[in-house]
Amino acid sequence: MDKPLYNILLAINQPLTEAGIKTLLSGNEAFQIHQLIDTTGNVVEHIVNLNPDLLITDYNVPDFINFEDIEHLQGTLSLMSVLIISSDVNKISILKAVQLGIKGYLTNECSKEELLLAVNMIAKGEKFFCGRILNIILEKHLPEKGGYGALLTAREKEILQAIAEGKSTQAIADNLHLSPHTIQTHRKSIIRKLKIKSPTQFVIHALDMGLITQK
Fold it and tell me: How many CB atoms lie within 10 A of CB 182?
């Protein structure tokens, strides 16, 4: 049986931007690209009815989609991923978007290669944040240097790195030849030792320890 197409919905409400993104992504036969043609009425309701695998949107377009809409959509369509592509440079807004649990964030200055990489990684269940966004996350939330790395075992550092790179529990288990239950046990230990309170902090600690690098 053929693998089902990965349905991507472009909801940016900027025709030229959407056309460019659609052209870039259309080269992958595994992707089925849709555009939100009807932007009248309840935009969120239109998106729910289309039920995409990935929503590519921008919360920074007036009278279109906002943070509350994104939060509602992710609660309603629990299997849907969200990739933000925006010109917003407000650090508070960017951090708020990241805290919503989106799978990726690109700025409008990102290259077409970064866009393709982001979509392909998200389609595999991973995450992607461009370098500028990681810089903002790091700048706002970097904890004081306190030898955090010494708190973790070598295996926990390995798992922290994989989590920060956006890999799923099953993918980490497969790569390390461990059970998902064992990965979850290590994850809980990492959260306890590092006092992690949000998914973003996995990335921050991994960056601080040098386990991953900013793109």
Answer: 15
pLDDT of residue 142: 47
Structural domains in the chain, sorted by start: 6-139 (3.40.50.2300), 142-208 (1.10.10.10)
pTM: 0.67
| Strand runs labelled E in the chain | 6-11, 31-35, 54-57, 81-86, 104-107, 128-129
- 1 pLDDT above the threshold of 60: no
Cα separation, 130 vs 182, whole angstroms:
31
Residue 6: φ, ψ to 5° = -90, 110
Q: Residue 203, Cα to own-chain centre: how many angstroms?
A: 12
Which class for 7: exposed (0-12), middle (13-18), buried (19 or more C-beta within 10 A)? middle
Residues 6+ apart with CB under 8 A from 50: 7, 9, 34, 36
β-strands 104-107, 54-57: how paired?
unpaired
Look up residue 94 and give its amino acid. I
pLDDT tens for each residue of 21-44: 999 999 888 999 998 866 666 889
